């Protein structure tokens, strides 16, 4: 990316920090990772992808969260407890027979991004697992309480995890 393009993207994200990351990436023909990295530094911290399993194990203890997979064709949302998992046969396997389960290609994770920013008039906090191509594998959002505020216990866990992984 040219320096002028990067400066323009950073200016855009400073003015529009709540923009949908995938939409900005598509419109500007950059990776989602580039969009995340263009957010104001106070809103994002990024750690290495080698922390995928540790991050997922920690998230499994947070309680009810929302996991989002955003593709060009659909946005899938799962609200519930992310199950614990383990590495086996080349995958990080979510160990649950019903609800959210599956097999994640953890070795393709190049970064774990921790993002706190305004979105649709509220503060949001999410962990984005970024793949080797700069795309977002999926995001896990800190849950909300009955008043629609971020759950304080999860926000604390989110920040502690960011401190460990993206120090």
TrEMBL record:
Q: Which InterPro entries match?
A: Heme_Transport_Util_sf, HutX-like
Concerning Pfam families, the annotation shows: ChuX_HutX
* Top-rank lineage group of the source organism: Bacteria
CDD domains attached to this UniProt entry: ChuX_HutX-like
Transmembrane regions: none
Q: Which NCBIfam families match?
A: HutX
Put simply, this protein is called Heme utilization protein HuvX
This protein's species is Bradyrhizobium stylosanthis
